[in-house]
UniProtKB/TrEMBL annotation:
<keyword id="KW-0472">Membrane</keyword>
<keyword id="KW-0894">Sodium channel</keyword>
<protein>
    <submittedName>
        <fullName>Uncharacterized protein</fullName>
    </submittedName>
</protein>
<keyword id="KW-0407">Ion channel</keyword>
<dbReference type="GO" id="GO:0005886">
    <property type="term" value="C:plasma membrane"/>
</dbReference>
<dbReference type="InterPro" id="IPR001873">
    <property type="entry name" value="ENaC"/>
</dbReference>
<dbReference type="InterPro" id="IPR020903">
    <property type="entry name" value="ENaC_CS"/>
</dbReference>
<keyword id="KW-1133">Transmembrane helix</keyword>
<keyword id="KW-0406">Ion transport</keyword>
<dbReference type="Pfam" id="PF00858">
    <property type="entry name" value="ASC"/>
</dbReference>
<comment type="similarity">
    <text>Belongs to the amiloride-sensitive sodium channel (TC 1.A.6) family.</text>
</comment>
<keyword id="KW-0915">Sodium</keyword>
<dbReference type="GO" id="GO:0015280">
    <property type="term" value="F:ligand-gated sodium channel activity"/>
</dbReference>
<keyword id="KW-0813">Transport</keyword>
<keyword id="KW-0739">Sodium transport</keyword>
<keyword id="KW-0812">Transmembrane</keyword>
Length: 235
């Protein structure tokens, strides 16, 4: 009954009693379900322990599991309070900078480096769903399967809009084509409106240590809802 009550927090069908989904017990229950969802993981042509590579985080859509995301201590400032210490705990940054990239040639770096290319060395994940857990009605918005969001390690993912779907019982492949843009220090002489970009030292955010458009919009949304409604999103 407790599992059904937890499901009711996401399926507003008016059947079960309301659940306090801000309780730590609720998210501990979801975190314990991770091994059952991530059935098999392979990276750089080697099988990996899924729970060591995927970090549980809270998003606007609920609990997600992120690969290569920065640890909360490297992403957020000290004024951000975390009520769930077991969430968003990843490997600390090592030999990497958001503007300069990887600062050394060591293989042991975080975020993890793409040491080889091609499907053989890519990240492969097998996701498992029990038949009784599959929903095709209003609970899943008539969309059954998983959502995959590709984001930069220092960017908090927005899974409400930017994602591609992985239906149940199907194989889906994603191709990432990186585009590197280098900026010289001389660009700083121009006004941000002229160059249409900011350096990290020029645009500090209140909650995030690293500036990005997505992080900025998320912070603006939190400030706006706090001002108008007196509250912010649970994530």
């Amino acid at each position: 009954m407790e599992e059904l009550a937890y499901a009711a927090a996401f399926c507003v069908l008016g059947v079960w009693q309301p659940v306090d989904y801000t309780r730590e017990k609720f998210y501990r229950f979801l975190n314990e379900s991770r091994p059952h969802i991530l059935k098999y993981c392979e990276y750089l042509d080697q099988r990996q322990v899924c729970k060591d590579y995927f970090t549980p985080i809270l998003t606007e859509e609920g609990v997600c599991y992120s690969f290569n995301i920065l640890d909360k201590a490297d992403m957020f400032r000290d004024n951000v309070e975390f009520i769930l210490p077991s969430y968003h705990s990843a490997t600390p940054v090592k030999h990497w900078d958001v503007e300069k990239g990887y600062t050394a040639f060591e293989i042991d770096a975080y975020p993890r480096r793409a040491l080889r290319v091609g499907q053989k060395h890519a990240l492969s994940v097998m996701l498992k769903t029990k038949k009784e857990d599959a929903e095709y009605d209003r609970c899943a918005n008539y969309e059954s399967g998983y959502r995959i969001n590709v984001h930069f390690p220092s960017v908090y993912p927005d899974v409400t809009q930017n994602y591609f779907a992985v239906p149940l019982g199907q194989l889906v492949s994603g191709l990432i084509i990186p585009e590197m843009i280098r900026t010289s220090e001389g660009v700083k002489r121009f006004h941000p409106k002229t160059r249409d970009c900011y350096f990290q030292s020029e645009r500090p955010l209140q909650f995030f240590k690293v500036y990005s458009q997505t992080n900025c919009l998320m912070e603006c949304k939190a400030n706006y809802t706090l001002k108008i409604c007196g509250c912010v999103g649970f994530h």
